[in-house]
Specification:
Metallo-beta-lactamase, Chain A, 14 strands, six-stranded mixed sheet, globular, binds fe (iii) ion, binds zinc ion, 25% strand
Length: 256
């Protein structure tokens, strides 16, 4: 079991590199897009980096891997994708990742949509979902179709309510403004938006969030809710879940 909750290490402009540790000082990180912030935390706390998990090939999630592996015995676990040059183990849907230091077990879930080979890791009450699910949002569809992304999000949304959603970016405040624009009568969403504003005022991360909260407030997980169905009724082509999802994603892309 993990001794500590996952900690977000801020990196680049708005990325989070997730850190897992145990009481003996072993560490794993998820999606190190920059080595510097990880090196600082390892040094400050006397931690030994043992493992790196990668969710997808974008540079802001992998660019720190080579430097972090320099002179260390680190296992890098990654999806099957040549665009990720450095990996010790390639994993896909249904595979299990077992760490001993820190001791943790994760299942691999294929979540195409943001990219075709994006994967997520779920276990220990945690979900590392990269740029697939954000708090109150979801990733842009760079490579996949709306149908693929909706299927991916539905797989993640089936995880237990208390799952801690550890996503790749601090996008929650902007996501909340968009969510309120299409689901403004949602009391849970209004409360979450207020909480997010307060946290950002104090300079705190808004994640991890809980899956139950996301299911109740994230418009991309609510395409079958009365509110989103009513919102989409004005869009000529939005009469099933996938086309409603596509309409919400398009509206978010255009939202300022
Ligand atoms: Zn990405
Ligand atoms: Fe990213």
């Amino acid at each position: 079991m993990l001794d500590l909750l996952p900690e977000p290490i801020p990196a680049l402009s708005d990325n989070y590199i997730w850190l897992l540790t145990d009481a003996a000082g072993n560490a794993a990180v998820v999606d190190p897009g920059d080595a510097g912030p990880v090196e600082r935390v390892l040094a400050e706390r006397g931690l030994t980096l043992r493992s790196i998990l990668l969710t997808h090939h974008h540079p802001d999630h992998i660019a720190g891997v080579a430097a972090l592996c320099q002179g260390r015995d680190v296992e890098v676990i990654a999806p099957v994708d040549e665009r990720i040059p450095h990996a010790d183990r390639r994993v896909g849907h249904g595979d299990i990742v077992n760490f001993s230091q820190p001791a943790a077990h994760f299942g691999v879930i294929a979540v195409p949509g943001h990219t075709t080979t994006h994967i997520a890791y779920a276990g220990e009450g945690l979900l590392f979902c990269g740029d697939t699910l954000f708090s109150l949002g979801c990733g842009r569809l760079f490579e996949g179709t709306p149908g693929q992304m909706l299927d991916s999000l539905n797989l993640l949304a089936a995880l237990p309510d208390d799952t801690l959603v550890c996503c790749g970016h601090e996008y929650t405040q902007a996501n909340a403004r968009f969510a309120l624009s299409i689901d403004g009568n949602n009391a849970g969403l209004k409360a979450r938006a207020k909480e997010v504003d307060d946290k950002r005022l104090r300079g705190e991360p808004t994640v991890p969030s809980r899956m139950g909260t996301e299911r109740a407030t994230n418009p991309f997980l609510r395409t079958d809710s009365n509110a989103i169905v009513a919102w989409a009724a004005h869009k000529a082509d939005a009469h099933d879940s996938v086309s409603r999802f596509a309409a919400v994603r398009r509206a978010k892309d255009d939202f300022r």
